[in-house]
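dude i think i finally got it to work??
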Amino acid sequence: QVQLVESGGGLVQPGGSLRLSCAASGSIFSIYTMGWYRQAPGKRRELVATITSGGSTNVADSVKGRFSISRANAKNTVYLQMNSLKPEDTAVYYCNARYRSDTWGQGTQVTVSS
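look at this
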């Protein structure tokens, strides 16, 4: 069973950037499809981006052109680079690992505010 720990969240001004990291342990990282999801207060959890074991990516339309996902299998880590952040990007961001079932991290808060 894989374990996930997110880091890199925080407070940033509109237009700023953050990079989230998700470190995995306990299983063979390279076989998992990895993803980032987010949940804003009062809203449902939504997909932000995913990356397959082969490196194919899928990015939500709401963040396309601003966010990118990547993975470093040698480091058992997946990243979410977030640029041109907007107040509506404020949410708890969760890392997800998918291989026959879903595993979630504990989440990291991202707040975009001036």
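The chain is about 0% helix and 55% strand.
im so relieved honestly
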